[in-house]
Structure formats: C-alpha cells, structure tokens
C-alpha cells in the first residue's frame, strides 16, 4: 500500500510537471509572482455581483478548525459563494474522515447542487462519492486531491510540488549550497500526514532539490531518517507530534552537536519544531535557530519569522483559491467550460485541475506580502510593528 502510494505520488508529480510545463507556468527558483489570471478577491468583492448562484446550494466540507488556514478557507469560500447568491452548507470534521463522510451524505440528501471537499484522507471517501455520482452532483476537490475514485470532477489547489521545491530551494540558497558551500550542515526532515496526497508532493518537490546534497555529504542527516512516509510523516499535521519527534531527534543525535536546518512542510509542524528547539536552548549565543521552512503563513508562524525562529513560510492566498472554486462552480452549473491549467492523476482518472501559484514570506517581505496586500491586519500578527 505504501509502495503504491509512493508510486502514485511520483506519477502525480510527473503529470503535474508536464502539465505545468505545457502551460508555461512553471516557477523559477526565486519566483514570487502572482497567478497570471487570479479571480477577484472576495473580501473586496462588490455586493452587487451577478447572482449566478440564486436558488443553488453548495455543500462545503473542511477537515478541521484546529489549523488556522482551514478556518480562513471555509470563511472565504462561504463568503464568496454567498456574494453570488448561493446558499452554503459549511461543515468541519475535526480531522475524522468518517465524520466528513456523514456530512457529505447529509449534503447529498439536502439536495446540494455542487460539493466542495477538502478531505482528511483523500482515499477514504469511496462510498459517499459513489452516492454523489448516483445523484449526479459535481464534486470539486478543494486543495487536497480525492484519490482512488472515478468521482472527482475537478480539483482546485496550489502548485503542491512547487511548494516543496520552493522550500528546498530556500534551504539551498540560505545555506549557500547553490554557491558551492560545503558545510557539512546537519539536516533533519519532517513530512506531513500520510493520508494527504499533498504531503507526498511537498516531500518530492523538496527532496528533488536536497537529495543531491545529502548524497554528496554536504547535508548530513544524523538520524538517517529521510523516507516519507515511513520515517518522517506526522499524522494529522499535528504540532505536538512534531514537537515530540524533534525532542527525540535532539536527544538522540544532537547532545553534542547542533542542527543547522530543518525541512518542515507546513506551519503546524514548524510550531512544534520551534517549541522543541526553544526548550533545547536554541536561539541563544552559540546555538542559533536552524534554517526552518513552513507553509500557510499562519499568524503564529509569521510571528516566529519576525522573531527569527522560523526562516520562511509558503504563502497560499486562500482568497485566490476560494475564487477559483467559485469560478469552477459557476461554470459547471452554467454548462460552460471550466477553467483549468493542470491535470492530476488520482490513481483512477486524470482530474482536470487548477493550480494557483505560490509565493514565500520571509523576514524581508512578510509585511508587504501579508499586510500591505490586505490579507492580515498588522495587529493580527504577534510581535509585528
Ligand atoms: C495540506 C495543505 C497545507 C497544510 C496542510 C495541513 O493539505 O496543502 O497547506 O495546511 O494540509 O493542514
């Protein structure tokens, strides 16, 4: 099963890279560009939008409220749909796939015209998706692909492979590896939830950059743990589990040495990793914080960037993703061509997809990217001034 997942992930990467190359939107290492044709932002949307959704109902299911981003995703999608006249049923599933499956079942029963699903374990919705198929309800996978099913009509996401690649390239540049720095630098790697297809793509993207430096001995993984998911996955993207694993690594391998770089695929893990590093005395003279990656630009993590505890975080503008989903929903229900720019193979079918572009925030640009753009208020961010 794990081998199958790994193979699937590699196939997905290949398909995605080919699709991106074909539409000329592949990112350069330093890319901080905005999507070429982003839809307008819901927070600035005029109230008098055409009411394309009048009389239509959309069921939206999100994985959990425990991570900041999904709260924003849910709120943005709901607001953008409602601004167009849609009725919205928004549900959160406390990271339990069986709970989400019942929520979707309810939405089918209540007669939703479209289902938007951000899954927990993308391969574990089988039965409920077949019910949607039987009821002829279009399904849009939101940010996470629905795998091993023939019922996933569209997929709206960010450039997931690009997320990992950007994190790998950030590390490469921060350590000067691309300029020939020889280190050796001690690296430890973390991966996301094994039920989330994105986690495979993040890991693949980062390792495609970093593996050559591990092979040449410039990056040294003292624990020897680099395999995703077997050795480095963190179930449910849980901060405390990441903290515990970092504690164990520091105790077992860094009693007389320091870690120079930690690959973290997202911000919830980076929060746990920073907590662990802090309690081990990092951030003091002679023990600087390692280069540490992240993703989502959660407010807490932007504070960590400002304080020098975390180096970067990939910014996924959930307003842009929300608008892409609304554009897809409108087009599906109007029988028009649905906007796509990529294809993901989910193990059964090629899913027509839209990859929104990504950027990264670091200590130099966080304010411009996150505050000046109106995404956050300055007062939202700890230690910002
Ligand atoms: C991924 C998502 C990331 C991150 C993570 C944890 O699927 O792409 O942005 O939020 O889940 O929820």
Supply database-style keywords.
binds beta-D-galactopyranose, 11 helices, 385 residues, alpha/beta, Rossmann fold
Helical content class: 25-40%
- What gross morphology would you assign? globular
From the helix content, strand content and strand pairing, which structural class follows?
alpha/beta
Distance between the termini: 49 Å
Sequence of secondary-structure elements: HEHEHEHEEHEHEHEHEHEHEEEH
Overall domain count: 2
Instruction: Estimate the mean pLDDT confidence.
Output: 90
Q: What hetero molecules are in the model?
A: beta-D-galactopyranose
The CATH topology annotation of the largest domain reads as Rossmann fold
CA gyration radius, whole angstroms: 21 Å
Class of the largest domain in CATH?
Answer: Alpha Beta
Strand content: 5-15%
Q: How do the strands of the widest beta sheet line up side by side? A: 2-1-3-4-5-12-11
User: Main sheet?
Assistant: 7 strands, mixed
Number of strand segments: 13
Number of helices: 11
The name of the CATH superfamily of the largest domain reads Response regulator
**Low-confidence stretches at least 5 residues in length (pLDDT < 50)?**
6-43
CATH architecture call of the largest domain: 3-Layer(aba) Sandwich
């Amino acid at each position: 099963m794990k081998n199958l997942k790994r193979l699937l992930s590699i196939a997905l990467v290949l398909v995605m890279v080919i699709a991106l190359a074909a539409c000329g939107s592949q990112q350069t290492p330093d890319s901080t560009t905005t999507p070429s044709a982003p839809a307008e932002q819901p927070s600035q949307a005029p109230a008098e939008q055409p009411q394309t959704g009048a009389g239509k109902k959309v069921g939206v299911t999100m994985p959990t409220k425990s991570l900041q981003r999904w709260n924003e995703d849910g709120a943005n999608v709901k607001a953008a749909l409602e601004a167009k006249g849609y009725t919205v049923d928004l549900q959160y599933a406390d990271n339990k796939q069986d709970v989400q499956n019942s929520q979707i079942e309810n939405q089918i029963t209540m007669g939703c015209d479209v289902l938007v699903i951000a899954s927990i374990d993308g391969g574990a919705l089988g039965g409920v998706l077949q019910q949607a198929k039987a009821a002829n309800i279009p399904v849009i996978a939101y940010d996470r692909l629905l795998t091993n099913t023939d019922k996933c009509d569209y997929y709206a996401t960010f450039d997931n492979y690009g997320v990992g690649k950007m994190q790998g390239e950030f590390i490469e540049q921060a350590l000067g590896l691309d300029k020939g720095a020889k280190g050796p630098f001690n690296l430890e790697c973390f991966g996301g939830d094994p039920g989330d297809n994105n986690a495979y793509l993040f890991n693949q993207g980062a390792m495609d950059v970093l593996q050559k430096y591990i092979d040449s001995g410039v990056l040294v993984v003292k624990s020897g743990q680099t395999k995703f998911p077997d050795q480095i996955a963190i179930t449910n993207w849980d901060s405390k589990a990441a903290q515990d694993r970092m504690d164990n690594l520091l105790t077992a391998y860094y009693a007389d040495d320091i870690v120079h770089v930690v690959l973290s695929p997202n911000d919830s893990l980076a929060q746990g990793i920073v907590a662990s590093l802090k309690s081990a005395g990092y951030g003091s003279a002679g023990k600087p914080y390692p280069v540490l990656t992240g993703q989502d630009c959660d407010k807490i993590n932007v504070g960590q960037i400002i304080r020098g505890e975390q180096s970067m975080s990939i910014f996924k503008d959930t307003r842009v993703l929300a608008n892409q989903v609304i554009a897809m929903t409108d087009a599906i229900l109007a029988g028009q061509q649905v906007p796509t720019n990529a294809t993901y193979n989910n193990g059964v079918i090629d899913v027509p997809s839209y990859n929104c572009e990504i950027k990264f925030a670091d200590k130099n640009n966080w304010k411009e990217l996150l505050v000046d753009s109106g995404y956050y208020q300055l007062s939202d961010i700890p230690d910002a001034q």
